[in-house]
Amino acid sequence: MVNTAQNFDAVVVGAGFSGMYMLKALRDKQGLKIRVYEAGETVGGTWYWNRYPGARCDSESYVYCFTWDKQLLQEWQWSERYPEQPEILRYLEHVAQRHDLKRDMQFSTRVTSAEFDETTNLWTVRTDTGADVTARYLITAVGCLSDTNLPPFEGLEKFRGKWCHTSRFPRGGIDFTAKRVAVVGTGATAVQAIPEIAQQAKQLTVFQRTANYCAPARNGKVDPERVKARKADYDGVVRRIRSSFSGFEYSAIPKSALDATAEEREREFDRMWDAGGFAFWMANYQDMRSNQEANDLCADYVKGKIRKIVKDPLVAEKLIPKGYPCGTKRPPLDSNYYETFNKENVLLVDANTDGGIEEITETGIRAGGREYQFDIIVFATGFDAMTGSLKALNLSGRGGCKLEDVWADGPRTYLGISIAGFPNLFTITGPQSPSVLSNMPVSIEQHVEWVANCIDNMRKTGKTTIEATPEAQVQWVAHVNEIVGMTLMPRANSWYMGANIAGKPRTFLPYLGPEGVGGYRKKCDDVAAKGYKGFEMT
Ligand code: FAD
Ligand code: NAP
After folding, report:
1. Radius of gyration over alpha carbons of the chain, in Å?
2. Tens digit of pLDDT for each residue in 143-173?
3. Which ligand has an atom closest to residue 496 CA?
4. pTM
5. What gap in Å lies between CA 236 and CA 191, rounded to an integer?
6. Cystine design at 191: which of 114, 153, 172, 332 (Cβ 3.0–4.6 Å)?
């Protein structure tokens, strides 16, 4: 491999929504030499890697897109309320082409380490293609949900059939026709994939460790009049999602579920359930995630729906979530998920009642002492969320301190965008920012614009380094933990809490700000307006 040292002003790692916009925003500030490294073969990130059957967004398409290209907001026609993966990838490819982004991107290249040099104040970035480059600014756009979690199931190497993880699904797909298929996992991915696979497979067996609270997506074509009205008011849409709680046009019912009468509650629950999408989770009573009694009312409503849809009461009982409050794990949106368990060719193996997975055998999976035979196993086991892909960068900051050591007990950041001891490093949608609790393009755009403005400001004021102070970081971490401590969120074994990965410190990873993404945006803008309060600049 060639090892030609090159110097850049900024290196961006990742070419999904975040890396693409970061490049565009930095280019617009002019005069910067930028390189984007991407492990995949093209742009798209999540939408390049996740090609499993049924993959589509859960955010509605009119807000799951870039809002900075106003003309494209008018021109692009989404086919459905929640478009499928190929359509979103096509959209991102179109954006890359329209803005000539690929000329500064290097694909099929993984960043393997980066070190901050205190004498030059530059980052040295290494990749698996052998090139060492330097950069004044290092910007991670590596994705909160991009580091695949394949649990170390014993015996997997012995399995003689085909297997794959949903986030590394083979291009061209897998033909499940006449096959005995296992799906391991029942998170948002599995909830999308299971109904699709069940339609093809001879026999589908689903291995569930924790049952989820799912609400109907209600996908379909969007009424053309509605599309027209939204396009006519896109400035309004953008204003509203940016100042909202979760980056959507939802606001919670401003009262306690306990203050509503039973009839009123039922009416509201029905309305949200019928609307589909995240309405049930984001437009519900305001104390749903903070008051156990209020939460129980919402949970009971969903449990009632499961019991109604699933015909076999024993299967329904297995699908009913237990032991954690609803909405404290990321709620999947379903299209015929519960109905799929009424099919004759679908079997549910529940770890709690039937026994968990013990090992993978040559011919299948042994769980609860019983052997199940398969031709294909699909692992829908998720990601080492939020910290996995950042730790994999092998970052060394001041004094050679390693990120993995600094974060041994969980992530510590200032605003989720900066880490004390790691100058000129910016983490787009990093841990302890709203990120995964929001419609992500809104949070991505906010971070990208903040970083681009910050770098612009540094260049204009002749600064070479910016770095969070340890004091500001301590305060931010305390604030993040204090706020989430007032909610029910820590009560679930969720990936938000790092609980899906054996040995991962149990700590709430994103930031559940009291005023949501709108309030968080104000905090970040306020920091900038006060001369980057909480940062040291030299
Ligand atoms: P990603 O899209 O994850 O891109 C990160 C990129 O960085 C990847 O391409 C990766 O290859 C690259 N990378 C990582 N490490 C390295 C390295 N060391 N060197 C080089 N390249 C590297 N969010 C929503 O808001 N709404 C939705 O409906 C929604 N649906 C989703 C569906 C699925 C199946 C999944 C998995 C996630 C979904 N998300 C959704 C979250 C989604 O990840 C974000 O919406 C968004 O796509 C994130 O963009 P990103 O650019 O920050 O990260
Ligand atoms: P996930 O939510 O983490 O689900 C993984 C599933 O695998 C869970 O059911 C988990 O059980 C199970 N599992 C993990 N390790 C296991 C083990 N060792 N043994 C048995 N079961 C195991 O992952 P995901 O479904 O890929 O979704 C991750 C996130 O990506 C979502 O929450 C969402 O943010 C995003 N996503 C979004 C969309 C969308 O918006 N359209 C679609 C897919 C994904 P436990 O619950 O017990 O851990």
Report:
1. 23
2. 999 999 999 999 999 999 999 999 999 999 9
3. 2
4. 0.98
5. 33
6. 332
